[in-house]
Amino acid sequence: MPIFASKTECDDQLRQRIKEISGQEFQKCFQCGTCSGSCPMKEHINVFPRRVMALLQLGQKKALEEANTPWICAACHVCLVRCPRSIDIPRVMEAIRQVKLRENLDQVDPRQIEKEKIAELPQIAMVAGLRKFTS
Amino acid sequence: MKVSYYPGCTLKTHGKGLESSALACLEKLGITVEELPRWNCCGAVYSLADDDLIHMVAPVRDLVRAKEQGNEILLTLCAMCYNTLARANALMKNDPEKRKTINWFMDEELDYAGEIKVVHFLDFLRDYVGWDKLKEKVTNPLKGLKAAPYYGCTLLRPKEAGIDRFDNPSIFQDCLRALGAEAVDFDMSTQCCGTYQVLGNPEASLKVSFDILKNASEFGAEALVLACPLCDYNLGKRQGEMKNKLGLANDMPVYYFTQLMALALGVPEAECHFELNREISLGFLKERNFLKASA
Q1: Is 90 exceeded by the pLDDT of residue A5?
Q2: Residue B168 CB neighbours (<10 A)
Q3: CB contacts, 8 Å: B157 with chain A
Q4: Using a CB-CB distance cutoff of 8 angstroms, which residues of chain B are in contact with residue A83?
Q5: What is the rounded end-to-end Cα distance, in angstroms, of chain B?
Q6: Contact A18, A56 (CB under 8 A)
Q7: I need a surface site. Which of A44, B66, B220, B280 has the fewest CB within 10 A?
């Protein structure tokens, strides 16, 4: 699928913000696709990590917002250890999440989690999940 | 030898089997363990946002407690706590600017600069006990047990927190072999189980966990052995759901490596808290006679 981008659509502010929060030079990505091939969640994401990086490089805010990738990312760090450009992709995903979460747009409502589930889940699942999905 | 010990929240409840069996093994190995006083939750995941230092306060506070205790090593059992504490430790050691900010913010605490060594029980066994010494202590070798070691993510990645090579690790296999078991190598031993996605996208984490179990059994594993209570939940406790939704053919017993180690070292079965595993896990050990001498 081609990416259609124009200068007017490029959101430079978003690019700067992601760079600031992630501390990563995502412009270094040369689109090899090793991250996409390695991602354990590739069956469940609608935009592969390689493409997320391309969209970021082009500042495509709308397309990035439609990607579920940062929310399915489990921060397993396989893409990081295999990236030939040493880009910490989990940090880039975190930054994309943070931009949303800092607008108070939580992805999980703790009040909606069933009581039985809370009792059954190990604490690390609750703590980690709420840290990733709520502000 | 004396070490400081950080348990973490889950090891006092759902993961009791991991803690209690590990402490019993450490006693058998002659290691004195001092639990940190006033420890707090480490935060379960390491903060990945560059501007988010507030989430470093929790793990660093635990590291300060360890420094106060005066031991060189802080031992961890839960793989997620290990990862979080080890990375916070690396940050305090290697990033002078952030170190300064965090130390200033926590001005009621001792200054901390990464003086403690954070280790996981597995690399502790390799580096401070040794596989030969562990082997010597085995009284009930787990002969004929085909166990697949599941590393998951947090013991190996990222590099600065890895206890072994991230692409071709062997530490878990070495440990199982020392206990007399047969370590089954399988393709997905370092693939993510979906971790906290059980909260946000439970179906996705169910599927990736299912794939891992299927892969392990294709490679001939009879049991899966792991070091993390969340992996245990995804790969062990959700097998019923996998049967209903994804057609998992056979249950696979799942154990903490410390539970099997305890059996091999002759620790009483009660210390393993098998009642917290799925029933099939205890059934399998009985059937294969691995409980005989440890009762």
Answers
A1: no
A2: 8
A3: 76-78, 80-81
A4: none
A5: 28
A6: yes
A7: B220
Q: In this structure, what are the phi and psi dihedrals at residue B2, rounded to the nearest 5 degrees?
A: -120, 135
Cβ atoms of residues B41 and A127 within 8 Å: yes
The DSSP result for chain A, as a single string, is ------GGGB-HHHHHHHHHHH---GGG-----HHHHH-TTTTT-SS-HHHHHHHHHTTBHHHHHH--HHHH-----HHHHH-TT---HHHHHHHHHHHHHTTT--SS-GGGS-HHHHHHS-HHHHHHHHHHH--
Q: Which two tokens stand for residue A62?
A: 């709308």
H helices present in chain B, as ranges: 16-28, 57-69, 79-94, 96-105, 121-124, 131-137, 171-178, 197-200, 202-218, 229-232, 239-246, 257-264, 279-287
Of the candidates A88, A90, A70, A64, the one whose C-alpha atom is nearest the C-alpha of residue A11 is: A64
Token representation of residue A104: 């108070």
Say if the Cβ atoms of A127 and B199 lie within 8 Å: no
Residues 6 or more apart whose Cβ sits within 8 Å of residue B90: B114, B160, B161
CA distance B123 to B162: 10
Contact yes or no for A124 and B159 at CB 8 A? no
User: Could you tell me the two tokens for B243?
Assistant: 């049967």
CB contact under 8 A, B50 and A22: yes
Q: Which residues of B touch A72 (CB under 8 A)?
A: 197, 200-201, 204
Instruction: Please state the ipTM of this predicted complex.
Output: 0.95
Check if the beta carbon of residue B159 is closer than 8 Å to that of residue A81. yes
- For B85, the 3-state DSSP assignment is helix
Strands B146-149 and B223-226 turn out to be parallel
Whole-structure pTM value: 0.97
Q: Compute mean pLDDT per 10 residues along chain B, 295 residues long, and list them.
A: 97 97 98 98 98 97 98 98 98 98 97 98 98 98 97 97 97 98 98 97 98 98 98 98 96 98 97 96 95 63
Say which residue the tokens 């379960």 belong to.
B44
